[in-house]
Amino acid sequence: MNLKLLLTGRPGTGKTTAIKRVLAAFPDQFAGIYTEEIREHGVRVGFRMCDLDGNVGILAHLDYARTMPRVAAYGVDVGVVDQIGTAAVRRALESNRALVIDELAPMEFYSPAFVAIIHEAFASPLDLLAGIVYRRDRVADAIKARDGVEVLTLTVPTRAQLTDLLLHRFAARFTLLNNTLS
């Protein structure tokens, strides 16, 4: 059975850090995306979306708030979601590598194409690791409720333990896949 693991938790609990540790442990096994904060003078002003092929775009920024769809104080560039995020997930589906998506949240959900490709990814036979918004959200709740999806809630006290669990589960999965292909 394929792994479909969703990592959730309140902001600041370390979801992205845990996902990056898994990526570092298995650098050639995954395709997909992650996000990074943009900080100026110690203050968060936006977010970058990065794919594992090296493409980067500004997903959201305070400066976009007047001209683009908003999530909290940030304006969201839906074009970046499609150009970086949707394209990276599509390439992952074609590559048959495990898929990583950090993160599935309202900023990304502004793109209908991204939401559609996410549902396609969850229906695919690919192994999948994704960070997903903790609070209630119509799109996120539907993803969390899919058959075969396991939701793991990260907290500061459980951060190290859950990261080790993710590393163990993917190590076992990749070993099984490599043995099957040999």
How would you summarize what this structure contains?
Helix content is 41%, strand content 29%.
What does this structure look like?
It is a single chain. It contains six helices and nine strands, in the order E-H-E-E-E-E-E-H-E-H-H-E-H-E-H. The protein has about 180 residues and is α/β, with parallel strands linked by helices. The chain has a single domain (about 5-180), classed as Rossmann fold, CATH 3.40.50. The chain has a nine-stranded mixed β-sheet, sandwiched between helices. Strand 3 (about 45-50) and strand 4 (about 55-60) form a beta hairpin. Helix 1 (about 15-25) runs parallel beside helix 6 (about 160-180) and helix 2 runs parallel beside helix 4. It is globular, with a radius of gyration of 16 Å. The model has no long low-confidence stretch (mean pLDDT about 95).
Fold topology:
Blueprint: E1 4-8, H1 15-25, E2 30-40, E3 43-51, E4 56-61, E5 70-71, E6 74-76, H2 78-95, E7 98-104, H3 106-109, H4 112-123, E8 128-132, H5 138-144, E9 150-153, H6 159-181
Parallel strand pairs: 1-8, 1-9, 2-7, 7-8
Antiparallel strand pairs: 2-3, 3-4, 4-6, 5-6
Helix pairs in contact: 1-6, 2-4
